[in-house]
Design a protein that fits this description.
This is Protein kinase domain-containing protein. By secondary structure, this protein is α+β, with helices and mostly antiparallel strands. The chain has 2 domains: about 100 residues, Phosphorylase Kinase, domain 1; about 230 residues, Transferase(Phosphotransferase) domain 1 (Transferase(Phosphotransferase), domain 1, Orthogonal Bundle). The protein contains 15 helices and 10 strands. The strands form 3 sheets. It has a 6-stranded antiparallel sheet, with no helix packed on it. Strands 7-10 form a two-stranded antiparallel ribbon. Helix 5 runs antiparallel to helix 7 and helix 7 packs antiparallel against helix 10. The two termini are about 35 Å apart. The N terminus is likely disordered.
């Protein structure tokens, strides 16, 4: 058993102290685990503050250096304003690099498992925040490369509904350093140019965000996440290549056994407007605006994909498609996302302690 496994086997969850020169943390529970190591929910000794400590494996030293470089680059941004996770400090413990982050609530994947799906009113503030994040990353020429529901977390669902932050910059890169043939992004959220080994830019993050927003709306992945071949076939059928009804029927019958039982297949993004039957005129307009934004985010040609700045001016985000219609007044009031300030974020932080 390697040293990493021994270290975690020896953890006594409620009592282990991680010491640093001037501070110490008590592990309350482990809340995440992956190829990188583990994430622990910790209390800062001497206070009620709660933080998340990411304990990295020793054998991924090169990856650690890369992630630290990315975190240093985004550290010049205001984490609350651009909706990225806040890094407090870095220290070494028993030969392991430990990263201390702000404690967040729950990721969007787990949230949707509980809620099934979200209405467009709830999706709008999430979309707006993440578009602002992509806009900031574009300024730094950084591509996150792993935008998916698991990597977006709610700050505090009770006190700040649908306020989110993007996490996990371990796979992020400066897009001018990208190499052809590299496998970036999770299957189901992978842009076609990445899958085909073509040159790519920061627009692959817009693709990932489009898939994420579709997931929030549907309650399941827009494209298959367990098979790259099925993902590509579904992508082609849904987004652009024209098939006759007969051709589609033959393809679908041959591959029907491969589709997840709980997944509905769409032959066009326009089908998504009618996923939920009950809706008023204003909500119908809002859904159509949402689907129009998705179409622009999910263009097969990355060069033609909408940019974050353009997307922030889209009617779905600005709600201009509703503001000029008197019949939409009640719906508009419900749909208007509340603004969030750093004071409110600080207040929510205090509520967690």
């Amino acid at each position: 058993m390697n040293q990493f496994k021994k270290l975690f086997k020896s953890y006594i969850v409620s009592f282990l102290l991680i010491y640093i020169f001037y501070n110490a943390f008590t592990i309350l529970e482990f809340i995440g685990e992956g190829a990188f190591g583990k994430v622990a929910k910790c209390q800062v000794n001497g206070s009620n503050a709660i933080v998340a400590v990411k304990i990295l494996k020793q054998e991924i030293e090169e990856d650690v250096e890369h992630e630290l470089g990315m975190l240093e680059a985004i550290g010049q941004l205001n984490a609350d304003q651009v909706h990225v996770i806040k890094l407090y400090e870095i220290f070494q413990h028993c030969g392991h690099t430990c990263l201390v982050f702000e404690m967040l609530d729950i990721d969007l994947f787990q949230h949707c498992l509980n809620k099934n799906s979200l209405y467009v009113n709830a999706i709008r503030p999430i979309a707006k925040q993440l578009l602002e994040t992509l806009q900031a990353l574009q300024y730094l020429k950084i591509v996150h490369t792993d935008i998916k529901p698991d990597n977006v977390m709610l700050i505090n669902m009770k006190y700040l509904p649908y306020r989110v932050k993007l996490i996990d910059f371990g796979k992020a890169l400066h897009y001018y350093t990208s190499k052809l043939g590299g496998m970036h992004q999770a299957v189901g959220y992978r842009a076609p140019e990445v899958t085909l080994g073509l040159p790519f830019t920061e627009s692959i993050d817009m693709w990932g965000l489009g898939c994420l927003l579709a997931f929030l709306y549907l309650g399941f992945h827009l494209f298959p996440v367990h098979c790259e071949h099925l993902m590509l076939r579904c992508m082609v059928e849904t987004l652009g290549m024209l098939l006759t009804k007969k051709e589609y029927s033959i393809i679908h019958k041959k591959n029907a056994q491969n589709w997840p039982r709980n997944q509905t297949h769409f032959t066009s993004l326009d089908d998504l407007v009618y996923v939920y039957e009950k809706m008023g005129c204003a909500e119908m307009k809002d859904r159509k605006a949402f689907i129009d934004l998705l179409k622009k985010m999910l263009r097969l040609d990355g060069a033609k994909r909408i940019s974050p700045t353009e997307a922030l001016q889209h009617p779905f985000i600005t709600m201009s498609h509703l503001s000029h219609d008197p019949r939409s007044r009640d719906y508009l009031t419900e749909a208007q996302p509340a603004s969030v300030t750093e004071v409110e974020i600080a207040a929510s932080d205090q509520s967690q302690t």
